[in-house]
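#help-structures
NK: newbie question, is this the right format to request a structure? protein is WD repeat domain 74
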Amino acid sequence: MAPNQLRFDDSCQLKYHCIEMLAPMIRFNACDFSPPSYLGVSLAKKQAFNFCEMNCLSRDQEVCVLCWGDAQETEVLVGCSNGELKTFSTEKGLFTETRQCGQSDEGKFTGLAVADSALVTSVESGLVKVWKDGATKPVEINAGRSVCRMVQNALQRHHVATGGKENGLKVWDLERPDVPVFTAKNVRNDWLDLRVPEWVRDLAFIPDSEKIVTCTGHHQVRVYDPASPQRRPVLEAQFGEYPLTALALPAGSPCVVVGNTQGQLALIDLRKGLVRGCLKGLAGGVRELQCHPSLPLVASCGLDRFLRIHSLDDHSLQHKVYLKSRLNCVLLSSKDLEACPEAAPAEQEVAEEEGEDVEGEDAVWDAMETVTERRKSRKADGGDEGAEEKSTKKRKVRK
């Protein structure tokens, strides 16, 4: 199937009802050279929505992390680089709450999660905070410096994992935050007996198990098993020659999707560590990947300003959306991406007006006279050219 390429229209404002944008996905754009914005894309209606007022944006509002605020997917939590945490209502189509959960000197957000009624945040300095309802101060956990990623365990929601540059994988129990429940051990020295550097860029908990998969800035994919006595990786694979920046776990598949700084995507089998296929089409570094919870689809965004959705069955490109600026985060809804909800009354009126305009234009074009141009036959043209060639040729005189 040929990819459906969309173009983001600047005139697309909040006059559209924003409930339908959740059918496909929500994603945020953050860029070093243009103002940040919070956009929604509807694959069913082939539309993009901008939920920010561009005249009041600044670069310190760059969005670093996204997560759902509840199980019903009616709220989206948005973490900005200035330490603000915003709550976006998908039913109202606007931001309903803003609070300060970090300081600029602590670094950007590297993770965001909701555990029961508490909110969990992580920043680059390694400070993990648990914000409980009714508490005056959050519970702080020091996860070490240069934390690149914090991820929550979907089965045990009070467990989170952290990792970063020269900061190995750690698993924390938020109910007992004094010491980590698991601390990974670095691999053995290389063949020159030199220490192998650590750089965890992204990680994820493997469903229906206690294993954790990580990707590193040294193009390595590693699997850890906290249930085993071995603290070193139980599996290690390599892909490409460039740093890996993001990973995602497909539903019901023993593979992991990884992406690097050159825009290369690959499926790696976690049973044998082999590359099972590649996803093509990207032209810039990958910032984030996310697989659909129930469908064999993976969404990717990055520096080439495109949002792409690939099929994990045949590795084909299903959708391609151009969104004008460099992208940081992508958040998929659990609903069917191409399920089109019923249109709101205001949208129905707009559709009727557009239909009337189209009918009027068709009537004008039908009333216009068709202009036909007489074409010369090839035989006549060929004959004339042959006569000219014969007249220009000189006879050969024999001696």
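mod (FA): yep, format's fine, and the tokens are attached above. Confidence is low (pLDDT under 50) at residues 1-35, 340-354.
NK: thank you!
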